[in-house]
């Protein structure tokens, strides 16, 4: 059976995310939706990883440093065959479930539990350096939030990556302009993020974070050192009633869910 186009797979992932928002605990909705197209580009085209052997020794790694957006990553892993989507919806954030509200390494396709912001990139740099020392072809992709780039630990990790010229490392920043406490620009401006990444030695590009083809092209571009991609996105992307608004966290009512699914082309009773 032919695979669905990546844009359709992104739409299905967003349907799963809004279903997770309608569970009893809800989810970090805005930032989960904003990064969907990045995840589709990575898991659908760029990364070398087998869903049937997600812990194979030779594989690419995806580290979600903004681990509070677990709903988005879990939904993408379900779409690409790592986990069962109905098991995810039933178990999300439930007592005793490994589908926790911040990503869990018990979930196939997840290497590290994250969510304490500023830690994922350091893990990724160490992993990339270790693979290079062992002369392995594994590549490492770290997806960060823009608010998270205010953490000093990230810039320490970036310096190490640049010093060692880790060409097997790619950082993607989900530049959705919002964080828990409000607009990123009002809290700690990231307006010069691309320039700062370049100044720290990263080979940097900026791209529309909702254009899957542009994302794939940028992610697959040749590089002789560590790369950074600033993906300009919108919170709530793909769901018209939410786009550009967020919210950061939401617990959907049945009516909210019905409206959100309808806007994604799914008609519910």
From TrEMBL:
Q: Tell me the cofactors it needs.
A: thiamine diphosphate
Which parts of the sequence belong to the Transketolase N-terminal domain? Answer: 21-265
Enumerate the Pfam families for this protein. Transketolase_N
Provide the alphabetized UniProt keywords.
Answer: Thiamine pyrophosphate
In the record, the note on similarity to other proteins reads: Belongs to the transketolase family.
Q: What is this protein called?
A: Transketolase
Organism field: Pyxidicoccus parkwayensis
């Amino acid at each position: 059976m032919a695979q669905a186009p990546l844009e359709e797979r992104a739409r299905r992932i967003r349907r799963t995310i809004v279903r997770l928002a309608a569970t009893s605990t809800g989810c970090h909705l805005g930032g989960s939706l904003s990064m969907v197209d990045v995840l589709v580009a990575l898991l659908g085209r760029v990364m070398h990883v087998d869903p049937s052997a997600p812990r194979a020794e030779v594989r690419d790694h995806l580290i979600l440093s903004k681990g509070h957006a677990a709903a988005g990553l879990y939904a993408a892993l379900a779409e690409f065959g790592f986990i069962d989507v109905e098991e995810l919806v039933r178990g999300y954030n439930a007592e005793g479930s490994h589908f926790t509200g911040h990503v869990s390494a018990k979930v196939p396709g997840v290497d590290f539990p994250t969510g304490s912001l500023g830690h994922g990139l350091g893990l990724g740099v160490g992993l990339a350096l270790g693979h290079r020392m062992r002369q392995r072809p594994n590549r490492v992709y770290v997806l960060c939030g823009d608010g998270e780039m205010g953490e000093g630990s990230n810039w320490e990790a970036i310096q190490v990556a640049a010093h060692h010229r880790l060409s097997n490392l790619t950082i993607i920043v989900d530049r959705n302009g919002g964080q828990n406490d409000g607009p990123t620009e009002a809290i700690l401006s990231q307006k010069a993020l691309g320039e700062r990444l370049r100044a720290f030695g990263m080979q940097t590009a900026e791209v529309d974070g909702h254009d899957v083809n542009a994302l794939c092209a940028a992610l697959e571009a040749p590089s002789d050192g560590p790369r950074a991609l600033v993906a300009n996105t919108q919170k709530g992307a793909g769901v018209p009633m939410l786009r550009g608004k967020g919210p950061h966290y939401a617990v959907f009512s049945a009516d909210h869910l019905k409206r959100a699914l309808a806007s994604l082309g799914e008609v519910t009773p």
